[in-house]
Amino acid sequence: MDAGLHDLYRQHLAAVTARTASALEESGFEGLIAPAGLPPCPVFDDNPYPFRANPQFRLWVPEAEPGSHVVIRPGERPQLLFHQPADYWHQPPALPKDRWTEQFALEVIGDPAELRRFLEPGRRWAIAGDRHPAWDGLGDWNPPALLNRLDYARAAKTPYEVECVARASTLAARAHAAAADAFHGGESEYGIHLAYLRAASLAEDDLPYRNIVALDRHGAVLHYQHLQRSLDGPASSFLIDAGAAYAGYASDITRSYARRPGRFADLVAALDVEQQALAAAVRPGVDYRELHLAAHEAVARVLAAAGLLRCDAGTAVEAGVTRVFFPHGIGHLLGLQVHDVGGLMAGPDGGERPRPDGHPFLRLTRELADGFVVTIEPGIYFIDQLLAEAAADGRRALIDWAAVDQLRPFGGVRVEDDVVALPAGARNLTREAFESLSQGAGPR
Ligand SMILES: [Mn+2]
Hints:
The protein is an alpha+beta fold. The chain has two domains: 3-153, 3-Layer(aba) Sandwich (Creatine Amidinohydrolase, Chain A, domain 1); 159-438, Creatinase/methionine aminopeptidase superfamily (Creatine Amidinohydrolase), CATH 3.90.230.10. Helices cover 33% and strands 16% of the residues. The protein has twelve helices and 18 strands. The protein has helices at 3-27, 55-58, 144-153, 159-184, 189-200, 263-280, 288-305, 313-318, 322-325, 384-391, 401-407, 429-438; strands at 31-35, 69-72, 79-83, 105-109, 125-127, 140-141, 212-215, 237-242, 245-246, 249-250, 253-258, 345-347, 350-352, 373-376, 379-381, 412-414, 417-422, 425-428. The protein has a six-stranded mixed sheet. β9 and β10 form a beta hairpin. α1 (3-27) runs antiparallel to α3, α1 crosses α4 (159-184) and α6 packs antiparallel against α7. Bound molecules: manganese (II) ion (MN). Manganese (II) ion is lined by residues 252, 332, 375, 377, 416.
């Protein structure tokens, strides 16, 4: 960890320590245990799933090893119980030596069950994480009164967290550039995926989520999950939704490309313009639901300009035509989790802030505040299922079907950036990252 990031990290830890102490007091606990977790095995198998550290642990510790724990006692230095098992089947982790460890009282354990010997009896413990049979009776598991407070607070990122997402964006932008080159070079989905991993120097298990690498009609599948190995010829369109991680913080970026100028290339360019305007509107005090509804108006303008409507843009929004082409939310909170927690919370005590009627997939309904990191990701897709539904109801007359059929083979467009709400306005981490590439700050 460089000195600049370490300064931010110390401030981050102080802020997290203070808000955790308040949350513990308000919910009636005297200490918090956050286990990193252990990778589970499928039933009937001894081959574990990839390890995903518990975000309640990750919030404190930049490097996560399975079986470690953070123990928080308000007013005291946080304790890190570092798991270093005697294990000749695997490479046991080396003790972390980086300067961030100075912030912790560090203890080594050989087995997660040893946690008990570090806990003074009689203290009221809360445990935030997966259950472990060795700890029954230790404390309360995931008490909602505490978890609600912790989750609600996580939406606003500290400057350290913003910097981690920015670095994750820089890593991903470099890989996106390599993926675009691979597409233009005529590679398959699989070939593009490998180009992405190599450029970011990542293995699949390091990705914050599975890459969506979609050529042609596959772009119409919102979470397309395959990697086609062969192609009949170079693809005409390419949608890639892929991120990277830095110290546990994710970036989440989507880009869309056309091989040739024409109707689809124009659609990509027009959506990109609207997307940048929506991203620029991210700031404290804005109700994210309003941004989502504004995105439908933006999508309607793009549909009208592309000749896809037989009505005006306002009618397309009111009649639900935009929901045929843009059937997901405008974005979500981003942080330790790609879809970060607390997006629908009404307040630190819990409760839900409702989604607008007719928009069941919006993942964030809160008013943005200083430090919120969100994605802005409008899309326009040609999804057979939704188009067939619209063709069978009153929306049939509002859509230009000949234009739809021309664009169907291209799948869809999505443009997604990671944006911070700051008092001075929006900070678009993704555009910054791509710009630093084009200025030669990173290899292309
Ligand atoms: Mn996203």
